[in-house]
Write a structure and sequence with these properties.
This protein has 8 helices and 5 strands. It has 2 domains: 5-124, 2-Layer Sandwich (Beta-Lactamase), CATH 3.30.450; 143-210. Strands 2-1-5-4-3 form a 5-stranded antiparallel beta sheet. The protein is α+β, with helices and mostly antiparallel strands and 213 residues long. Helix 6 (167-179) packs across helix 8. It is globular, with a radius of gyration of 20 Å.
Length: 213
């Protein structure tokens, strides 16, 4: 393994105890199957995840540009599907070639803190300055669900099933999936080919064209 897992488990556990039950800390291992990257988690109830679950959608969206991702992931806010606000930081652990091999993520549920701050500002008359947010980061327990959601969003966006899209529409849709990092998911090409009603050869031709190969 790229790092000392037992040390990291003890370290993250201590941080979790220090910060309290609203602070989730987890370790991802990217050396194997991206369908199951979480190898340790403290206070998993914050995002509803557990050991064996995949990374959030944010990983697939940012991992193409590692150096940019390191900056964006230092300190950011996210909103869960049920409306809770998290302040987050993610540290990528890279090998000498710069490839991410693991990550340590800290997600602090600050919903109650913000509500209290809003109430105090209301009482003293101060205006609220909104926080910077990356939007809704989806915490998933199955990467296939994420891919299914992405395909469903394409149908809504284009107003038709994938099998009825013309070549230009299909190329744009595949480009979006590539931008979202969906092809990092194991066997994603199988489901994508079924969605568009195309062969694997046709799909890879689209991807080569999109990526400028």
């Amino acid at each position: 393994m790229f790092f000392d897992l037992e040390f990291m488990k003890e370290f993250t556990g201590n941080i979790g105890n220090l910060m309290g039950s609203n602070c989730e800390i987890l370790i991802h291992d990217f050396e194997g199957d991206l369908d199951h990257t979480i190898i340790h988690i403290v206070n998993g109830h914050v995002s509803g995840r557990e050991v064996g679950d995949p990374p959030s959608t944010l990983y697939f969206e940012t991992i193409k540009d590692v150096e940019k991702s390191k900056l964006e992931l230092k300190d950011y806010y996210s909103t869960t599907d049920d409306g809770r606000i998290l302040r987050c930081t993610t540290t990528l652990l890279c090998d000498r070639s710069g490839r991410p091999r693991a990550a340590v993520c800290v997600n602090m549920d600050i919903t109650d803190i913000i509500k209290t701050a809003d109430l105090m500002k209301e009482k003293i008359g101060a205006s609220y300055e909104g926080h910077h947010s990356i939007g809704t980061e989806k915490y998933i327990t199955n990467v296939n669900t994420m891919l299914d959601n992405a395909l469903a969003e394409l149908e809504i966006s284009f107003g038709k099933p994938g099998s009825e899209m013309n070549k230009e529409e299909r190329s744009e849709a595949i480009a979006r999936l590539d931008e979202y990092g969906m092809f990092a998911i194991s066997k994603a090409h199988v489901k994508v080919c079924e969605f568009f009603g195309i062969s694997k050869f046709t799909l890879y031709n689209h991807l080569d064209s999109i990526r400028g190969k």
